[in-house]
Structures
1.
Amino acid sequence: MIQFEEMGFTPGILRSIEELGFTTPMPVQEKVIPMMLGNDTDIIALAQTGTGKTAAFGLPLVLATDTEKSATQALILCPTRELCMQITNDLNNYSKHTGGLRILAVYGGASIDNQIRELKRGVHIIVATPGRLIDLIGRRAAKLSEVRTVILDEADEMLNMGFLDSINEILEEVPVNRRTLLFSATMSKEISSIARKYMNDPVEVLIGRKNASAENVSHNYYVVHAKDKYKVLKRLADSEPDIYAIIFCRTRKETQDVAARLMNDGYNADALHGDLSQGQRDTVMNKFRLRNISLLVATDVAARGLDVDDLTHVINFSLPDDTEVYTHRCGRTGRAGKKGISVSLVHLREKNNLHRIEKMLNRSFNLIPVPTGSEICGKQLSRWVEKLENVTTGHKEIEKLLPEIRTKLESLDRDELIRRVVSLEFDRFLDDYRNEEDIIDPVPQKEERKSRTVKKGSHGQSGEGYARLFINFGKADDFFPDQLISLINSNTRGMKVPIGKIDLYRDFSFFEVEEAYSDDLIRAMKKAKYMGKRVVVQIAQEKNEERGARAFPGKKPAWKNNRDNGKKNHRKTRQTFAW
């Protein structure tokens, strides 16, 4: 492996590299830097965000720029204000010990008069967002006639944001004999079109697999009902005590709603979306970078250009329609050789979208169970004990208070003291999960006729000793295991009915309970209602020739007459089932 010292950098640049903590070049740096320094070839580099590409083009630019000339010699285009500022800061760090290099960040939301003033003084490298640069070109403030290198960073992001026309307009302003480098996480048709039109026989550098997500990221998903997504999100956050994540939503409204619910429930969370002013946006992002916020809820557009190290998770509260957007999302974790996790909350209507993403990435995602309340409390307790073991105790102020503390607590023995401290520390988790039922995955569509065993606290297995009951609601009523369990719990308080196998059908369902509870349960459910309709729970009839007709013994129940609502051609045979 070639080292930075062997690449021909000046002592000043090598000093900056050392101060930044760079030891050996990352793969994209190892490939791109020698090409930039060795010849004038155009380059297409396909690499994820966070792979070290800024240094790959930034270090050679600092070395190659002639500070004796006041003209602009290099132009870097990027999609967002945040990325623009970040690249400028990195270039300033690289050139700290070289002297004389002037770099200007050009973006909307900042004073255009100040930017014009700096451009008139002379700037060697412009780092710009397309919209503001076009404005400055129109005012004849940005002069690009002597630009020799153009870099398109996160080109696919710029195209996703609708900057294609702006990029075309800008590239028409720079000399035709320039050098062009294009950095992108994915290779779309639009990227190929730009390469054909504006690049001269480019060399393609591939870091990882084309159109692939970060190799260090594991891809997991939960299958949930849409209405349960927030509950599952909370369980995911609670099951990871050290979580540091971006939660991606589809819309601004969804982003605001999810962030507001998280904050109301006591989480360190905030929202990032297009309705925020630039000042509000900067405040939120600074808090997130400092980890004063551990959960950032964002839209894709708002999060573009946000570069944060050490994310533990990327959470897709809603899957994106564009599979390439997924690549950008999950590429924000698992950086610099570290492991990352991408988790998607998928309801049944999104399964096809998930399979499309799997096919594009050529990877199978892991279906994982929703964490149970006991698992969550166990993880939180283990993390708390670990922190307790490692806490610093050398505070003199505390030593002064210890006699008074001992006096007040001397009536408590060790076990009682531990119980009270744990109860105080985990009050929220205990309240949330003490009586909370475990969230059950929806029945997969291909297996909707198969029975399932539903865990409800601790209960026996279905089969011998269990009674099979009929209930007059099914999947057409949005009635699934968690709705059944909730309905039973709300009408049988204090009984703790053990539930076994559940069979779901379109218009009705069957479930099993321990025989000792069946009569009491049927009586308790006589006055129950679900979605404004009367609930009917009966013992399921024996198997016979007229399965559908015999599901209801005797006279046709009133609820069925109501549901038919005068339909003369109501189905005479219901779906096939067995009991």
2.
Amino acid sequence: MSEPRVNELMEKIVSLCKRRGFVFQSSEIYGGINGFWDYGPLGAELKRNVKELWWTSMTRRRDDVVGLEATIIMHPQIWRASGHVDTFSDPMCDCLLTRKRFRADQIELQSGTAYHYTGARDTAAGRAVTEPYAVLLPAGKPPESARKTASEFYRLRGLAQPELEGERMEKVENSQRFNPDNGSLLTEPRPFNLMFKTYVGPVADEDNVAYLRPETAQAIFVQFKNVADTSRQKVPFGIAQMGKAFRNEVTPRNFTFRSREFEQMELEFFIQPDEVVEALCGTVATPSGPGHPGEPQRNWGWQMWHQYWVEERIRFYDAIGLPRTTLEEYWQKPEELAHYARATVDLLFKFPFGTQELEGIAARSDFDLSQHERFSGKSQGVFDEDLRTAWGKLPEERRQELSGRYHDARLKYLLRAGVPAEQAAKDAREDADGLAKGQYMPHVIEPSAGVDRLILALVANAYSETTTTDEKGKTEVRTVMRFHPTVAPVKVGVFPLLKNKPELVAKAREVHGLLRGDMLAFYDEAGAIGRRYARQDEAGTPFCVTIDFDTLGETPALKDTVTIRHRDDGRQERLSIAALKDYLIARVR
């Protein structure tokens, strides 16, 4: 069977999500609201399963990561320290004709003939508009199309019967200055801050401005000291958080991939600077090649930790049904990195609309804690008694070397942060001298994933179509959602063979009750058994259990057994009811 066309495939996925209750348009009965989505019964279970698996893998199966759940609205100064108030923006432009808004860097490249006008005059009313305007026409379109669009532009500016002035033509190649929908000139790009603004308190003025958080990470940084003190964790250790974030995207698109309200799963893993590792261990371990570096060691530098978390995250995706073969690793080039980042790896997935980012794993140096220390005036560094002891045993030459490297790194940060050179030099020297006292600023590795993007990737990866032919030769295309059992919304469907046989229904209800406390089990008695299987295939249910007459003892050897049907290959097997729960739990958790 040939693969569906990209747009056709995405349309099928969106349709399935609505039809089966995975995802609904928010506020649909009122016409919807762009960039916001609601998760229906199956979607809510799928999302909850994914989040629970992430949380378990990050915190409950590790001794070196603890959790945090912070508020959505925080002190506005946090977003100044993080740079979001000043720099968290996209280049935005508007269509001069329709006022539709575009992200300037995402407008498709266009070529053709641009028709420029210096203005227009309404001779009957004696009015003129001198505002310049332009329209881009693709090859083959007559000039009259441009004049028609330009006339509409000047009519919107008050001219009843505009007479265009100053027409000139220009060949244009690969331009992003025109609306791809109608050819109209766009405004010059300008920054558009993506944070949602609100007010805290009864007065809506600038003194009470607050923001809905655009990411969950900053709460981790500002609570770092409290968490470290109360959890009795020692660097290296991590703080994990899941939660809502909000970005006022200029152009939400691609279904749930880019939304204005979304959820994140983020880990900030705090590590020792390489200079501290070297002082404690004598050497700093660096990667010897690709692949997982193994269990963490005391002498790991930032490169080892970064590679470790890249591989850990790939292992997680593989465990929930996105094998490494479905992912791409993109190592950002030096010119693409944020100014504070030493390295960033984007894990990409091939969506029907293109290969896009699922998660980023960044080595963020000590930028975040340093910024919050500078803006709050509260120390964010840590004290390490082992470092103070080890430092005292180092030869003087070694101390000078490590102190000098640490000084240079801190000075570079301070100068980039805008601290005056004299003050920066003084602060960097104090920071470097702090090593002898066992004091340093932790660095951080940040794996940051979007829940909604991951859900969409799982749905896209699970979607498949099978063609079946019945005994009469009639063919039917059926949708099967091949979710990994651990993330599947419904784990098992339970059916009586016939709904008009009370003894079968009673036994099926009994089996359903046996399972439902340990997993989401769905009871269904409506329609032919084949149709019930098909409905569960479309929901992604990995197992279906059928109670038939053999279950009741028609064949004595099969009494109190059921038929288990496997979604992916249609295979069926008999199993005793007594063994059923353990059998399923071992496969769906």
3.
Amino acid sequence: MATSSDGSVSSSIKTWVGSGSPWVWLAAGAVSLSLVMVFGVLLLIASNGLRHFWPAAVAQITFNPGAGEPLLGEIADRESVTAARARESGGRVPAGATRVDRLLIKRGNRDIGGEDFRWVNVPDIQIIDYPADAYTVERLEWGNLYGRIKALREGRTEVPLAELSARLARAAELRAGIDRLQRVSIGAANYALDAVHRRQKAERKAGTPPGSQSVLAAEEQALRARYEVLTTELQASITALSRDHLLLETVTGETREVPLAKVVRLYAPNHLSLRERLSHYGAKLWEFISAQPREANTEGGVFPAIFGTVLMVIMMSVFITPLGVITAVYLHEYAKPGPVTSVIRIAVNNLAGVPSVVYGVFGFGFFVYLVGGSVDRAFFADALPSPTFGTPGILWSALTLSLLTVPVVIVTTEEGLSRIPRALREGSLALGATKAETLWRMVLPMATPAMMTGLILAVARAAGEVAPLMLVGVVKLAPTLPLDGNFPFLHLERKFMHLGFHIYDVGFQSPNVEAARPLVYCTALLLIILVMSLNLAAIRLRNSLREKYHAAE
């Protein structure tokens, strides 16, 4: 009976294995584990990044006698270290203790103490208090300042503290006006003056009549008058902005005078209500998305990096789509089997496996030096030796990433063309259509979902590439955007910022590692959201096209 039972169990197992159910469950388990890991990584990034914008409480730390002066700042982290490591930092270690807890304090006041963060051992702490009158002052430079407000001054005259909110709003409005003057109005005047100077130089070189030169001279004079008016207005705004000052007392009793012109935000985090905290969180989050970076990219926003990433991906898509589709159409519809076709297919397959940094080296040598240098010599000789296109820029970055991702578009488009039944082509030709008409009006529209799939994969890879961009156009901080209101509006020769490079720069090149760490998570989360948004938009377009040309499936 036992032998019969064992044989029945063995037969059942063989039947179960032969049905393929174990492999189905194995595949489902692997997919589930992958999804859990992906969502776990996203949750880790989001939790470490998004909490950065919440107003942290300001703690006043009083040490035991002889352990140091009191500190006022945010408790950024807590960890447990060995007793030997705690002694190295100069802190007290209880007798017999093998491990000691310590706190990372964001003390701010970098212009006073020289260090933004400091580790303190818990045994050295006598008391931790959270005073309601402790203020956090976010500044344009030197990081946060923590202290207590003593007075508000207009020049040397003290004014009531009740006017502080109104004067902060006035300073913010003046600062925004100064930024608009510098970036928009004065920038446009400078750009127009440079254009007039180039035209004058070209006309003098071509020997044009004096009448034309006098017209340009009058235009230059008008632009210079406009420039003088704008600079006078700018100086007046700067003078008005430097009127008010805030006096704060640090935890050590030192008084600091802070110009309101340098204050981005002022608040008492220990005294905020929940509504005020939510408002602060929303304002900080919006600043991160919409503002310019400051403090070596460790403060402020990442809008130029968002703009540069999106614009570069759009330009790459414009370049890659026709190139990849034309190549796929040639290989599938026109090319005859032979050595040339085989070489092309091998080249396409090999391009997909080349490291991305190699594309950067190629783009730097071919596009920047060869093509860009030739364009400068042919069309911008008057500007030499200063390069115009013979230097890294957004155009060369988009073209380099187009070469990097074009194999994906070629392969997916060719697969889409191969799925279209041959009978449809033959029916179209039998009805009198030419091969070109059949291709343009029937085959390509039906293969559009496959093209969009290739574009989705290309965008997903290109948006996160950093290595080639470091050689062909991306920079740490770009003074102007590649797209503005000055003709020709899209300036292909300009350098740009990129979210992927911003993550690398903030995470590995920042002089203030602890301050930069939350921004690394925030920027990484933003890049993921951006890539997902671009992909979802392309997927939605692909699905609509697939429904329209359902016969191609």
4.
Amino acid sequence: MARTDDTTESRGYRPEGVDDVFTEGRGAGASDTPPAAPKSGPALPALGVRGTLRWTWRQLTSMRVALMLLMLLAAAAVPGSVLPQRRLDAGAVQRYLDDHATLGPWLDRLGFFEVYSSVWFSAIYILLFVSLVGCILPRTGAHLKQLRARPPRTPRRFDRFPARAEATTDAGVDEVVGAAVGHLRGRLRWLPRFRVVAEAPSGTPEAPVRTVAAERGYLRETGNLVFHLALVGLLVSVATGQLLHYRGQAILTEGRGFANAVVDYDSFENGKLFRPSTLVPFTMRLDSFDAKFTAEAQPRDFTAHVTVTEPGEDPVKEQIKVNHPLTEGGAKVYLQGNGFAPSVTVRDADGQVAFSGPVPFVPQDNVYTSRGVIKVPDVSPGLDQLGFVGFLLPTAEISDAGALSLYPQPYNPRLVLDVYSGDLGLDDGVPQNVYRLDTDKMTAATDKDGKRVSLILQPGQTVKLPDGKGTMTFDSLPRYVGLDLRYDPSLVWVLTFALTALGGLILSLFVPRRRVWLRVTGGAGPDGRTVITVAGLARHDDAGLQNEVDSLVAALPGASDPPGAPEEPAPPAEQERGESDR
């Protein structure tokens, strides 16, 4: 503490501006001696490299910075869900770049099309991880010390605590103390309610005094630490999953299958540590697909019947339903979508088969009006390539006003196609969307009046193409399914740590932190009765604290309220002064 007589003038300097205040308005005779120049203040020590690093570490490992990084991570993840990502849909990224010639390249340079593998997202992720670890380790050490420490000693005065009670009894001091210790500890020896310490006797032989100190609520801080440790576990699990995961999509037509190999998937994306050799080489064939709808064309049930064959094993019949995936090769196989894949045969003008097989059409509405493209590049030399774009109508109704589908089941299927001829652009080396037809270098077929020609086919029908370019046959109408295969070894750990974090959060929110003290004085009451005084203190507002004190008094043998006992507890404002009396 600073000495009261150690003034600024005795130290030989005066704060800046004091001389002006003292000399302002001085009368004649005042000294004209100019004041001495003020000396400079004490020089602060330089922080240095080590001090700077220590200050930076303390800021990084503070809870405030950890919460800021957590919010920043959530904000940084938003562009990944708003903008197309190159690893999921490279075509969508290219279309975005074409549509936004100015903004797109800048976003690409900054990594907004590869958010989750960008440098800035990884930096936030790593900083959050370091911050959480730096917060948890010191708090864990301090918490372990608290668990081994004894409860605080009994204060001298109880009258300022927010919860208190008094009683008298004919029982002896030791009997009361034993009953209090048993009540506070509870019935479970391995999980006591309170940590209890019965302090050594004091007082005189005529008026012995014994005190008991008890504390509970350490699970509150334990839950807090468990919550933060679970967050670290979640970060590690998600990072591990992103490194090892893979996901592939495949379209299967009835009667056809695929092998679990990278080259057999229509699209495939994986983590940086994934190795194709880790794929289990099973095969899967779609035997049939059942779709059920209500009378109002609402979907009711979808079931894909498949045959799975693992290496060295017999084929096994399985089913895949919506929200009921099939587990195969350590991965989940989900039923992602379904539709129709009309099987057609196209012959060119020379009568050669230029194309034959099923083509998936994408449903556009709830009655499965499906749009699709058929590309026929393998025509005879010298002939134009052919392209067909149009719709499949499962239950068609065709009139002068147009054609539409009335129901999603194939009760009256029709294939309505426009015909184009020319260059499909497949030899340019630029990837194309199989569901789009580039007509820049193609010409639409027209009749003599210049109107566009449309082909309308039903299953089993063969029609001639315009201008003698060949024929098309609608062979059959099989169904197809879209399968989504996902492998992520971290899912179980993510669930485990999420539940652990929830449990820790519940403990940290609902476990009360309480301290209870008991003082027993023998022969101090009326007729030589034993006097009991109890006080309680909570770290935060605790509506159940007074009930805790009252239940302790009620558990003591023969306890009764003394004359003039207080009826109301002290106001919460007295709580802070309670601990100063220890």
